[in-house]
Amino acid sequence: MHNFCQTMSQTQAPRTGVPIMILKEGSQRTTGVDARRSNIQAAKVIAEILATSLGPRGMDKMLIDAFGDVTITGDGATILKEMEVQHPAAKLLIEVAKAQDAEVGDGTTTVVVLAGKLLELGEELLEEGIHPTIVIDGYKKAADYALKVAEEIAKPVELTKEQLLKVVSNALSSKVVAETRDYLANIVVEAALQAVETRDGKPYLDLDWIKIEKKKGKSIYETQLVRGIVLDKEVVHPGMPKRITNAKIAILDAPLEIEKPEWTTKISVTSPDQIKAFLDQEAEILKSYVDHLASIGANVVITQKGIDEVAQHFLAKKGIMAVRRVKRSDIEKLARATGAKIITSIKDARPEDLGTAGLVEERKVGEEKMVFVEDIPNPRAVTILVRGGSDRILDEVERSLQDALHVARDLFREPKIVPGGGAFEIEVARRVREFARKLPGKEQLAALKFADALEHIPTILALTAGLDPVDAIAELRRRHDNGEITTGIDVYGGKIADMAALNVWDPLLVKKQVIKSAVEAAIMILRIDDIIAAGAPKKEEKKGKKEGEEGEEKSETKFD
Question: In angstroms, what is the C-alpha Rg of the chain?
Answer without folding.
Answer: 32
